[in-house]
Specification:
Blueprint: H1 20-23, E1 24-30, H2 34-45, E2 50-55, E3 60-68, E4 71-78, E5 100-107, H3 111-120, E6 128-134, E7 140-146, E8 157-160, E9 176-184, H4 187-196, E10 202-205, E11 210-217, E12 220-224
Parallel strand pairs: 1-4, 5-8, 9-10
Antiparallel strand pairs: 1-5, 2-3, 3-4, 6-7, 7-8, 9-11, 11-12
Length: about 220
Amino acid sequence: MIGLCGAAGGSSQPKGPVSLLAKVDHLVYATPDLAIGVEKIQRLLGVQATPGGQHLGAGTRNALIALGDLTYLEIIGPDPEQPKPKAPRRFGIDDLAAPTLVTWAAKGTDLERLTGEALRKGVQLGDVSPGSRRNPQGALLTWRVTLTSLADGIIPFFIDWGETSHPARTAARGASLIELRAEHPDAERVQRLLNQLGLELLVTKGQTPALIATITSPRGRVDLR
C-alpha cells in the first residue's frame, strides 16, 4: 500500500483491517444538469442531497449525500451561475448525456510522496493541485488532490482534506456504501494497477467500463453506476 490513510472509526465504517470502503473518500456522480442528477438520486435512494457549493472558475457546483462517517456521494454538474469555462469541465461533464458514476476519490496524505511512489510502480497519478469552495454557510473548504483518474475512472484520484472538516460530516444522511466494484474490457491490466496502489477494488471483465456502488438507503439496496 502506498501513502493511503484509512477512515476514522465509527459504526458505519468497516471493522478489522483497513478495507477498500475505508479508503473511499467519495464517489463522483457527474451529470449534465445538477438538478436532474439530484432528482434522480433522490428517486433511487430516497435521500435529498445537501447543496455543496460552487467550484469557481471550473464551471461546476455540487450536492452531497453522506455514505459513512468520512465518505460521501458527490453529485456534480454545470453551474448555471458561472460562464462556461474555456477548458472542458472535469469528469467529462460537457459530453454526458445522462447522470453517471464516473470515478471515485481515495483518501490520501503526503500526495507528492504518494504520486512519486506510484510512478515508480508504473502508475501515473498526475500532478497535485490545491482546490477550494465555500459551502452554503460560507465556510471555506480546502483540499489537495491528484489530477488524474485512470482506466476510465476506475483507478481513482487521491484527495487530502488537511485541516478542513470532512464534507461528509454535514452532508445529508440516510445512506451507506456497502460495496464498490468495477467492470472493464481490460480487467487484468486495471486490476494490476489497482493492486500496485494497494486498493482492493475487484474488477471483472465487461464490454464497457463501469464503476458500480452498492448503497443501502430508505429505498433499500441500490446499485448505482
